[in-house]
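Hi support team,

I'm opening this ticket because the web form for multi-chain structure prediction keeps timing out on my end. I have pasted the exact lines I submitted so you can reproduce it. The total is 836 residues across two entries, so I didn't expect it to be a heavy job. Is there a limit I'm missing, or should I split the entries? Thanks in advance, R.K.
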Amino acid sequence: MLRYILLRLVLLVPVMLGVSLLVFVLLHLGSTDPALDYLRLSHIPPTDAAIAEVRHALGLDRPLYAQYLSWLWKALQLDFGTSYLTGRPVFDDLLYYLPATLQLGGLALACTLLLSIPLGLVAARWQGRWPDHAVRAVTFLGVSMPNFWLAFLLIALFSLWLGWLPPLGRGGAGHLVMPVLAIALMSMSINARLLRASLLEASGQRHVTYARARGLPARQVWGSHVLRNAWLPLVTATGMHIGELIGGALVIETIFAWPGVGRFAVSAVLNRDFPVMQCFTLLLTGLLMVCNLVVDVCYAWLDPRSRLEGVSA
Amino acid sequence: MQQPGNRKRALWGLLLLAASTFVNAEDATQNAPTLVYSWPVNAGPLDPRGYAPNQMYAQAMVYEPLVRYSASGTIEPWLATAWQVSDDGKVYTFTLRDGVRFSDGTAFDAAAAKANLDAVLANSQRHRWMELVTTLDHVEAPDRLTLRLVLKHPYYPTLMELAQVRPLRFGSPQAKPGEPAGTGPWMRVDSRLGEYDRFARNPLYWGPTPAYGEVLVKVIPDPNSRALALQTGELQLIQGAAGEITASTFVRLRDQGFATALSAPLATRSVAMNTGRGATRDLAVRQAINQAVNKQAIIDKILYGLEPRADTLFAPNMPYADLGLEPYAYDPALAARQLDAAGWRLAPGNTVRSKGGEPLSIELVFLGTSALQKSLAEVLQGELAKAGMHIELRAVEEGALVRRQRDGDFGMIFADTWGAPYDPHSFVSSMRYAGHADYMAQRGLPIKDQLDQRIGQVLASTDEQQRAEHYRFILTTLHQQAVYLPISYLTAISVRRDSVAHVQFGSTLFDVPFETMTPQQEH
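Hello R.K., no limit was hit. The queue was backed up. Here is the completed structure from your submission:
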């Protein structure tokens, strides 16, 4: 098992290298020019001389391979360059903004799990009855509603009409409620539906029928035979939701003026701040790969069959 | 044995008194009201000569110019109380205001002012977009309160450019890194990345003390969130000319009863036409375009009626621009007659006019990521189609747009003027240089050389009357030659809660005069 984890960690290196090269090439081969954004934001007319001056200052006038190699060499020393727009070290800024995003993402993940599991259980346990219909209505709404729209509806309801919650910014617990809900609702809905489906599938399997035939109490049948098997898809889905939660944070942080990496990255994309975009993509890639690894390890722990396959792999 | 106890009590009494004074002093600053404003990003390091990420609204709060640009386009004394210009227009001698100190306690005198301007000259490559920087030869400080600017050649907009927010304002030469100090009414006391910047009034300010004790500027990037924050009371003021909220949101807030205001014209939203290429080479076509577009309908439908209609390249409130030029009135019938007379005829069954086999087709280039330009382009296309002109819309991204401006690769292109205080002199000056859309648009004019010559003359002119005459020639020629289709005048917007009074606009696109605003009881 340890060997497997180590192998996966080692594999991170070529993947990160590949991603960095791909992102670099895609950014620089486009017809966009960050020098123009710099001049626009500086309110300086974009004359040829001004563009050349800024391109030189930003190091964009060097050959592409030289730019990449110098970036890579520095990146290996955890120096991801300075932002074109703020002039501040990119890695420092990302680390500065990361805790706020992890707080939001972590709570959204917790919220997803805490809400989706009971909802999925209720829906499966009373399949076809009113609790199932109610859960279906909620999850249907959650899956179909874009998170930014939900965010504005929440602000309108809780801040504007009721005046219960602050509309934006980071501060006390009150500031967390709406952004966390806006980010979590979709994952929560998907997970609830998924859990319901896999519970129903598991409960139809033969070993469950035999368990019932053996006269085991319903609680034990559900706990030891149905749930145990139904968890697995949920674990996979949760791993995938981590990416979704961070993706959701991009938009939601901008709406709630939340000082996190998502908002930082959105502003970098809008203003073609290449160093920030590169570092953010790598950070996200690393984060998702580690999450996938954790999911796989959980999987192995929950399901001995995959553990054996994993070891042989 | 009594005495030590008494001393102790006296000491405690003194301590308590001192503590209470301290608490009172704390209260005094805490009780002075705070104005809450917002901006999409942090104010930046606040370098008086820095560009992005330094935000101009914040630089204008902290740093002050020698002379100030007023909303009516005139120049007022500021850190300089008086000035003289030599007869040859090459030496500007300023008398500095006495008793002015930077917020770090350093005196503002001629030496400090010279140090700032020398720093600009030492880095002139970076600032050469501003013509004064390339024109300035050297700076002298003959005595404590006299500052002399010696130019290489006469340049009349010297005072206008000194008034700009950067790079010719003054920071303390003794300022420590990360602790910017200017002479302005405000100083930054706190900043949290991604959250806010807090400005407190400068206790050493030479002018009237602002009514607000602090200005808290929250970082809010999203315009809709900004509007909601105002509605919930998290913000007290939305003001600016950089799309702080959309026009529709402005109208909604106004309808909900918030106090709103629009500034005087600050710049012009216009379309430049290429006189050197395609159908727009023909004066009749350019004039017909000016007559065939219903600007008021565009303003009402797309701009929510918020911007005044523009009939000339510069608004009459800009310096030298109040010339009484006769507008091209909206008259589609006249446009059609004019096109017919010029030989652009509509063949039976056709919807597009043509002349000698060449269809009247013009490529309109716009920034594809700008929803507003896209809407304007589509309406222009519809309006001109009614007059038998085919407008081919070409959405491009920013880099391509600049390349097309530089190469003159357009039939028509959106080209807003630069706004106060750059208009008209800096904008007109740029018309002489290849690489500007305006140069490329005008290069087909038979009198382009003469026009450029007059622009050179107006900038070097030392005689007020002569200057006005040059401007009359330049602006009248551009108007008569219909090089531009002015659409509307850009304005700054302001929406406030009742808790803020005396809200005024700055005289440029970039400043917000918080120091004039006063708190009042919210109804």
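A quick check on our side: The longest strand of chain B covers residues 136-143. Let us know if the file doesn't open in your viewer.
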